Amino acid sequence: MTRTVLVSGAGVAGPSAAYWLHRHGCSVTVVEAAAALRPGGQAVDFRGEQVKLLGAMGIADEVRAHETAMGDQLVLDRAGRTAFTVPARFISGEVEVLRGDLARILHDRTRDYTEYVFGDRVTGLAETADGVRVTFRHGAPREFDLVVGADGVHSGVRAVAFGPETAFRRELGYHFAGFTAPNHLGLDHSGLVYSEPGRSAMVASNREPGTVSVGLFFRGDPRGYGRPDRRRQQELLAEVYAGSGWEIPRLMRAVPDAVDLYFDTVGQIRLDRWSSGRVVLLGDAAWCAGPGGSGTGLAMMGAQILAGELAAAGGDHETAFARYERRLRKPARVGHKNGAGSAGFLVPATPRAIGNRNRGYRMMTGPVSGKLLDHLGYRAANAVRYREYRDRVAS
Ligand SMILES: Cc1cc2nc3c(=O)[nH]c(=O)nc-3n(C[C@H](O)[C@H](O)[C@H](O)COP(=O)(O)OP(=O)(O)OC[C@H]3O[C@@H](n4cnc5c(N)ncnc54)[C@H](O)[C@@H]3O)c2cc1C
Predict the structure, then answer these.
(1) pTM passes above 0.90
(2) Does 11 score more than 70 pLDDT?
(3) Best probe residue, ligand 1, of 37, 38, 98 (max atoms within 8 Å of C-beta)
(4) Is residue 15 over pLDDT 70?
(5) Which residues line ligand 1 (CB under 6 A)?
């Protein structure tokens, strides 16, 4: 029997779920709050088991065709000299793409057999005897067998089915702003990181040689900013980076014109359960770990496991959701652990903390300890193994 599944969110997890659910015979609708696919985002990387998954989805070649092919990244001291070098394989894994490219590749792969509805969102979920009656902000109510909340860290489905975000959120104590800027620095497949106490900038060359991806990380009380609109985001960035050295003033001048400015507080999501009746969470909506938590690969792996377990349980969603959760709990914990340590690397709070980071990484990136860095890089990616489930529909 074909099952109807509503997936909320057309980021990375949502279209991945559409792909795997279709392969197991489901009919999938994806509802996305944005009016179109969201193009933004910096680079996301795959390594180890996650690379096998790209092959299994038939997108490995296309992902490779768009890879950033980034080289080593240099971390600079206050004078702009190299403090240490982070090898490409640590930051960029085995294959790295821009998040926006990945989202488009996944959408292209699934659009022929998936109903995509843009510019709408779930407002209510009521479980019936054999399905879920869903109401939407704009569209007419509909009934589905199952609902997957793959709508990111600020998930709307999670809010409706589990309660407000504050109950599940753990702040990491810093904020992130990402945008595209002109490549004044002439970077070519390389990246630079510059830190002052409590504020950093990460600049990496893009697929377009004329532009760079800029990531700004800065400490601050997460509740202090609320959910600022675009104008307030610009003001906040100008306030936080006032008086910064190095190339920051020039980078800041690109903010007003940036069409892809992304601004958010960095935090993690931790829930005791990822499902409630016929509603299940996936990706950042369920276990967002923050930077370094292998969130993209794990979201995609989670989609494959969720759909596979549903097929293996013959449609018994309770059994499937419990097995899905059992397989992914440990990798999510590893991701949380990695993500929790991200502030120390990305945005050290004091001059002393910057010095300690630089010394520590100089040792870790040296020839003797290089293996430790590899271990850290692969720890989250390989925490769950790729395992095939039997398909019902040929891909
Ligand atoms: C614009 C953008 C830029 C990002 N940049 C980076 C980055 O630079 N580096 C990085 O590591 N990670 C970034 N991320 C997060 C990264 O994509 C995720 O950590 C990871 O890929 C897991 O994906 P996800 O599908 O669970 O969540 P996401 O990729 O966040 O996708 C969630 C999707 O759900 C949509 N959505 C949100 N609320 C609702 C709702 N109520 N109803 C319907 N749809 C909704 C969003 O518009 C989005 O398309 C970014 C996410 C976005 C949306």
Answers:
(1) yes
(2) yes
(3) 38
(4) yes
(5) 8-14, 31-34, 38, 40-42, 44, 99, 121, 150-152, 154, 156, 178, 262, 283-285, 295-296, 299
- Cα–Cα nearest to 110, from 205, 10, 38: 10
| Nearest CA, atom 9, ligand 1 | 42
User: What are the counts of helices (DSSP H) followed by strands (DSSP E) for the chain?
Assistant: 14, 18
Helix, strand, coil shares, percent, the chain, to 5? 35, 25, 35
CA of 12 to the centre of ligand 1 (A): 7
On whether residue 307 sits in a domain, the answer given is yes
- For ligand 1, the distance from its centroid to the CA atom of residue 25, given in whole angstroms, is 26
Closest residue by Cα to atom 37, ligand 1, is 151
Q: Is the pLDDT of residue 27 over 50?
A: yes
Residue of 266, 343, 355, 352 whose CA lies nearest to 75: 355
Give the model's confidence band at 88: pLDDT under 50 very low, under 70 low, under 90 confident, else very high. Answer: confident
Q: Is the pLDDT of residue 209 over 70?
A: yes
Q: Is residue 392's pLDDT more than 80?
A: no
Higher pLDDT, 325 or 392: 325
pLDDT confidence of residue 382: 84
**Nearest protein Cα to ligand 1, atom 30:** 152
Contacts of 167 (CB under 8 A, 6+ apart): none
Q: How far is the CA of 151 from the centre of ligand 1 (A)?
A: 7
Domain with 287 in it: what CATH number? 3.50.50.60
Tokens of 179: 């945008």
Q: Give the chain's domain count.
A: 1
- Cα(79) to centroid of ligand 1, in Å? 35
Domain that holds residue 22: 4-67+98-168+268-344+371-381
